[in-house]
Amino acid sequence: MNQLKSIIKNQENKRRRNFLLKLILLLILIVGFESNSLLTPFFERYVLLANMVRALIFLISGNLIISLARIITLQFYLKRTEESKVQPNFVIGIDRLSSLLNVMVILVTLMLLFGVEPLKFLTSITIVAAAIALLTKDYITNIVNGLIMMFSDQLEIGDKILIGKNIGFIRDITLINMVLKSETGEIIIVPNTLALTSEVVNYSKNNAHQVIFDSEIPFFSKVQLNDLEQKLNKVLAPFSDLVFVEGTQLNVIERKTESMIIRYQFPIKSGLKATEISVKKAINQELINWSYENRKA
Q: For 182, which of 13, 66, 169, 186 could close a Cys bridge (C-beta 3.0–4.6 Å)?
């Protein structure tokens, strides 16, 4: 069992206990409010208190229904993925959808608290609701697109992707945007609509993707491309389980007046950030050492 699955199961056990406590509280409230008890005259006298109890019953009932649906869905998902990797996207999607439904329940609860009937209220503000929907169209589209991505396996948290001119690792998918972290640590916020409608390259879904190093070398340096390529290949040798050493290439990609730009590239078997960092440090150090040796010569 992978670590993520263990964490999810522990969290679900806590949620089941909370579910049971809320169910007991709901039953107590229903018995005290709906049945003809000693509290009935008290509620008839204090209407505001009766509205508060009625709203609380609705809030807990709605939350319990959402929680039950969430527990059943995740339980089914965990059983289906018993022998495979759990995708964090699905769990996040369930959590965000549950939060969205709970917000709706809270809004209806507030209406009941002030003695407003939700159906009549919604009917009376039809035109206003249409105007609000028109103004928040972009937000609604982002929310729908975010949910689509959460329940899809095309983009997952931890994947390295290229979207537009931005390359980074997916750190979070919210209801409004996708959060990327670049290799240099910058946080990139991408609207969900853009992420779903643009061309996206997912390096982590491939069996291999290219790691590229560009370096500018002055013409007065004594450059032997074959020697440099052999040195860099030796650096990659200890990482043979992570990269395809036989796929390395060293080429001149641009010639300038006083310098040229060389490119060293190789396919890597994983798009994981930690893997690339260790390999890149080794290659960069070798390029620095090589440049220093040539300057001394």
A: 186
**Nearest-angstrom CA–CA distance, 261 and 243:** 23
Q: 63-97 pLDDT, tens per residue?
A: 999 988 888 888 887 777 655 556 677 778 888 88
Strand partners, 200: 163
Give 37-52 pLDDT, tens digit per residue. Answer: 666 666 667 767 777 8
Structure confidence by residue, pLDDT tens digits, 137-183: 777 787 888 888 877 777 888 777 888 888 888 888 888 888 898 87
Six-digit token string for 105: 């329940």
Average pLDDT over residues 272-283: 74
Q: How far apart are CA 286 and CA 234, in angstroms?
A: 10
**Closest by Cα among 69, 72, 92 to 80:** 72
Strand partners, 92: none
End-to-end Cα distance, the chain: 56
Name residues whose C-beta falls within 8 Å of residue 268's C-beta, 6 or more positions apart in sequence.
208, 209, 210, 211, 242, 243, 244, 275, 276, 279
For 75, 248, 249, 252, 253, the CA distances from 291, given in Å and listed in that order, are 57, 20, 19, 16, 18
**Quick one: pLDDT at residue 1?**
45
What's the rounded Cα separation, in Å, for the pair 168 and 29? 51
Q: How far apart are CA 65 and CA 127, in angstroms?
A: 31
What stretches of 239-296 adopt beta strand conformation (E)? 249-255, 259-268
Name all contacts of 32-39 with Cβ < 8 Å and 24+ positions apart.
33/57
